[in-house]
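Title: Prediction job returns without error message
Component: structure pipeline
Severity: low
Priority: P3
Assignee: unassigned

Description:
Job completed but the reporter wants confirmation the result is attached to the right record. Sequence as submitted:
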Amino acid sequence: MTQQGVRWTADQVLALAPDAASRKAGSKLGAAGPWSEAGSSDEGAVWGLCKGSGSKPYQTVVDIADAAGPAYKCSCPSRKFPCKHALGLLLLWAGDEAAVPPGQAPEWAGQWMAGRRKRAEEKKAGDGSGASSGPADPEAALRRAERRAERVTAGAVELEQRLTDLLRGGLATAEQAGYGLWEETAARMVDAQAQGLAGRVRELGAIPGTGPGWPVRLLEECALLHLLDQGWLRRERLPDGLAATVRSRIGLPASADGPPLRDRWLVLAQHDTTDSRLTTRRIWLHGAASRRTVLLLSYGAAGRAPELALPVGLALEAEVSAYPGAGRLRVVLGEQFAPPAPAALRPPGTTTSQALARYGDALREDPWLESVPVTLDRVVPAPDGDSWQLADADEDAALPITPAGRSRPGLWRLVALSGGAPVRVFGECGHQGFTPLTAWPEGPGEAVALC
């Protein structure tokens, strides 16, 4: 199944869950008890009937061979994707080959799979038809871009004045003014169609009064915001790469214009961040031949999980194209030549001092960069007072684990995996330290997701 008969692990299945409640409910359905007529096919389908509270069992089918990640269909009323029944079916398939034997798909599952295959073929044929993907009226698109640039410039000028007023009045006034002033300023940036500036203004509003040293942190963030403002206002004088980075940080849309790069991409990490309006999923990939580490972003609105899901430890043969900007880490997934399948690949590791040097080099091209993807080799998680750090086993150096990394249950997975011995850890290295996302034991062993 998927490829060469290799099945997923339970951790890879549970990484697909949209939330903790679904993960718990799906785990309870990962046994043979509630299932009947379960089966699988060489085409990448897994199906089964799950007994529920009603008289009719729920019909559940999963397309695992979709190169963009699994697709799901269930007759239950849940609005979560995947629902608990799809998770339970995949857990059953992953853990008990006899419970989900190869066979012929029933009509209801076969029709759904055939429809998906037909739509995929039609889309592929349409993409290769030679139709232009550009705007129907280039001149109109240029005029719209110019009008938006004018609005962003007006917003940047207004924000510069507000920062000047803040510094003239003293940073202490920021705590007295409360969050309302920042939210109103952020709304003005939204009106100016500068979503990146709006987001950074909201982050400023969360700093005042947050403990010792907050004025220093506020001043640092104001300086970075001022630098971004000035970068936009003087964008014509910047090198092309830095100008593209400024446009991206401001929030202007861009297309992936890099040449397609085909490789066998290992899924290093997948983790979500959620606010009241949007769920953002970050998927890090590492190319086995190119040795490049790239980032896929996908989004889900109104509490829904993003559709793209690639659990840690899988690898897929595919093309990616980079977005403009310094480092060109963000990519879009292009043509896929085989469905994702488990792989024993590991990214090469580096030392803690080299990781810091890499982050410093990246900051020269993108001063607003919070972190870079890094794989540390032979590090040991160790307590450091009230915090934790990753101590280098081969040199007298260590990286602190960020507050985000310490607050996740994955820290204890990392400690248990290490047991005091060196491990290889992939994560994000930045000004606050290192956030572990995935780890491998020093000897043979599968990847362990830490988020």
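Comment from assignee: result matches the submitted record. The two ends are 26 Å apart (CA to CA).
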